[in-house]
Design goal:
The chain has about 675 residues and is an alpha/beta fold. The chain folds into three domains: about 120 residues, Chitobiase/beta-hexosaminidase domain 2-like (Chitobiase, domain 2), CATH 3.30.379; about 260 residues, TIM Barrel; about 140 residues, Alpha-glucuronidase, C-terminal domain (Alpha-d-glucuronidase, C-terminal Domain). The chain contains 20 helices and 15 strands. An eight-stranded parallel barrel has the order 6-7-8-9-10-11-12-13. It has a five-stranded mixed sheet with strand order 1-2-4-3-5. It has a two-stranded antiparallel ribbon with strand order 14-15. The longest helix is centred in the last third of the chain and has 33 residues. The two termini are about 30 Å apart. Bound molecules: beta-D-glucopyranuronic acid (BDP). It comes from Qipengyuania atrilutea.
Length: about 675
């Protein structure tokens, strides 16, 4: 059990569930016109593989024939691509799998296998489901040389060196895993893109991958560097309004579509962190995006990122994206989607939802999340992210619905956490975040608890008590990380560069907003970033109803307190404690929660295979130590500013601030 099989383990059932399944001779009934459909072939193969594995050793019980009737051109379920219904076959022993397209039958097959894995009796399976949004994607930050930006699971899974001749079998298992959770789009390269990845020799590699993934319903997308017309096209400019530049992109797009007829389109990071973009020519994001949109036409989509981070006059980095994009609402072509990170800053353990959601009613916005845990302890800390994403998806924007409703016409992307590690994600529990991203993009109303349980059963064990324990660990885990890293609305206190470990004291980097001290604004009197009208007024970017709730430090949701307010260390909180006392209590609570996770896991030695049990236990031991490191280093630093004694009952940090500052670990994975 090295984790390679992910949630598609199909571990043999036991007891009654096995008896029932083994007693049925499941028979995929595929109509003639679908027999040669590659997607249906994938579905049938998966069904056979899954059921065989769920039954385990040879059949002993008498067999009853049980048909699975593939009815995959049926609009009865509604015309949404990928929708499916599974119901008892009328007038016969079996199930009818009904879908408007082959993709729906594939998703239905995976749904059926999930139910069976959960121990459901196939004779009573009754499901109807449709994806909530059209685009459910992974964005890989993989570089052509195999290094993954912010990747903590080994090298890239894409072998550009040997493609197109060699197709790693892993590319098929990857596609299966994605299809099983409804993911239908993959951007294969880093947003910090290299122009040569648009050259013909790369297009041949994409073709090989796209051909392999097509049966799994996955469309391939590529990150494009905006200056490619100059970098590889020999032009003097990349000005989006220049006719030669436009013609170059049109020809480039045609070249892609000749090789990959269902090519998804381009993803672009422009004018952010040194990437080129239309602003280099005094053009807008809309000018740049629309030029590419015209080049791909109705064949594909341009996904344009709102993560703009460059030198501006803004007094608050959190305001930049809204300021640049909202005035452009209505100017983007129909096949442009603006991809917006969950919060206005950068994938912190907690941020309020991004104020752009709801603020651009005439533009398609999609949600960008980060599966790889750049700011949440990499792959060594356990943090199940479904609660974080649901928090954002369920947030009321105050302008036409929740974030989930705002992004429903477009979709969700997750920055992938895959790598060449045998377990794909760098740790067993990080697989759950890949899983959760797909499940939530399919259905944002799924509860974190449901996702945790179904993942745990498929991945680890069906023992009900163990599942209970694992689900609880998962559900508490992200909040524990928030508590020991960035409690009460703090953010961006991580060490410079690799973003691992605490460094709230950093204050000497060239640009103000590179420094943790810019974000916490702690001094002798208090801590927190005043984003109200008396400060940066980032709050004014939210709808009035939301801003009103957050404007008052007395009424604001406690978890956003220091995000929006600078608060005196001695201010009284609702609990009756001072801010300082409450902050320290949060750190200590974070630590006890991690200790509780480790203890709970130790109790599962009999329920989980030894290989993965040990791997998880080792990570939890790291997390226990590092939660303390975060707490102690942070407290030592805050005390150096506020001079306050430790609250009663709280232990002082065992080392001096200088000792925490002096820690360095050059072996941490770089960017
Ligand atoms: C930040 C990462 C950086 C990415 C950037 C982005 O630190 O490596 O390039 O986001 O999203 O979180 O473009």
């Amino acid at each position: 059990e090295d984790g390679y099989d992910l949630w598609l383990r199909y571990a043999p059932l036991e007891g009654e569930a096995r008896e029932i399944l083994a007693g049925l001779s499941l028979h995929p009934d595929v109509p003639d016109e679908l027999v040669s459909d590659p997607t249906i072939a994938v579905a049938v193969a998966e069904l056979e593989r899954g059921i065989g594995s769920l039954i385990g050793e040879s059949r002993t019980t008498p067999q009853t024939r049980f048909d699975i009737d593939f009815d995959c051109r049926n609009e009865d379920v509604g015309g949404i691509p990928g929708a499916y219904r599974i119901a008892r076959l009328s007038g016969g022993d079996g199930l009818a799998l009904t879908a408007p397209d082959s993709g729906g039958c594939l998703y239905g097959t995976f749904a059926l296998l999930r139910e069976l894995s959960l121990g459901q009796d196939p004779r009573v399976v009754d499901l109807v489901s449709a994806p909530a949004m059209p685009l459910r994607m992974l964005n890989h930050w993989d570089n052509p040389d195999g290094h993954v930006e912010r990747g903590y699971a080994g090298r890239s899974i894409f072998d550009w060196w040997h493609l197109p001749e060699r197709l790693d079998e892993r590319m098929i298992d990857y596609a299966r895993a994605n299809a099983s959770i409804g993911i239908n789009g993959v951007v294969v390269n880093n947003v910090n893109a290299r122009a040569f990845m648009l050259e013909p020799r790369y297009i041949a590699k994409y073709k090989r991958l796209a051909d392999a993934w097509r049966p799994f319903g996955i469309r391939l997308y590529v990150s494009a560097r905006f200056s490619a017309p100059q970098d590889i096209g020999g032009l003097e400019t990349s000005d989006p309004l220049d006719p030669a530049v436009r013609a170059w992109w049109k020809a480039k797009a045609d070249e892609f579509y000749r090789a990959v007829p269902d090519f998804g389109g381009f993803l672009v990071k422009a004018n952010s962190e040194g990437q080129p973009g239309p602003q280099d020519y005094d053009r807008t994001h809309a000018d740049g995006a629309n030029m590419l949109a015209e080049a791909v036409g109705n064949r594909g989509t341009i996904i344009w990122r709102a993560f703009v981070y460059s030198e501006t006059d803004e007094t608050d980095r959190a305001k930049q994206a809204y300021a640049e994009f909202v005035p452009l609402d209505g100017q983007f072509a129909d096949n442009v989607i603006i991809q917006v990170k969950n919060g206005p800053l950068d994938f912190q353990p907690r941020e309020p939802f991004h104020p752009m959601f709801g603020a651009m009613p005439n533009t398609k916005l999609m949600l960008e999340t980060q599966i790889t845990k750049e700011y949440l302890g990499f792959a060594s800390h356990l943090a199940f992210l479904a609660p974080m994403w649901s928090e954002v998806l369920e947030a009321e924007t105050g302008r036409g619905g929740t974030v989930a409703e705002v992004v429903a016409p477009a979709g969700i992307a997750g920055v992938a956490n895959t790598g060449s590690d045998r377990n794909w994600s760098g740790s067993d529990f990080d697989q759950a975040n890949w899983y959760a991203l797909g499940r939530l993009a399919w259905d944002p109303s799924l509860s974190s608890e449901r996702i945790a349980r179904e993942w745990a059963v498929q991945t680890f064990t069906r023992n009900p008590q163990a599942v209970e324990t694992i689900a609880k660990m998962m559900l508490d885990s992200r909040e524990a990380v928030v508590r020991y890293m960035t409690p009460l609305g703090l953010a961006h206190l991580m060490a410079t560069g690799h973003h691992y470990g605490p460094a709230p004291w950093v204050c000497d980097l060239d640009r103000p907003e590179w420094n943790p001290c810019y974000y916490h604004r702690a001094d002798a009197d208090g801590i927190g970033f005043d984003r109200t009208a008396s400060g940066s007024n980032a709050l004014s970017q939210y709808a009035d109803s939301v801003a009103a709730r957050w404007a008052d430090p007395q009424t604001i949701d406690r978890e956003y307190l220091l995000w929006f307010h600078h608060v005196d260390w001695n201010a009284r909180m609702h609990s009756g404690q001072t801010l300082w006392e409450e902050l320290v209590r949060e750190y200590d609570r974070g630590i006890s929660e991690v200790d509780a996770m480790a203890e709970a896991w130790n109790g599962l030695a009999a329920a989980v295979d030894p290989q993965r049990h040990r791997a998880v236990a080792e990570n939890l031991a790291i997390q226990q130590g590092e939660a303390r490191w975060w707490r102690n280093a942070s407290i030592a630093y805050w005390r150096s500013l506020n001079g306050l004694p430790m609250p009663e009952g709280a232990a002082p940090p065992p080392e001096t601030l200088e000792e925490y500052k002096a820690r360095s670990f050059p072996e941490a994975p770089g960017q």
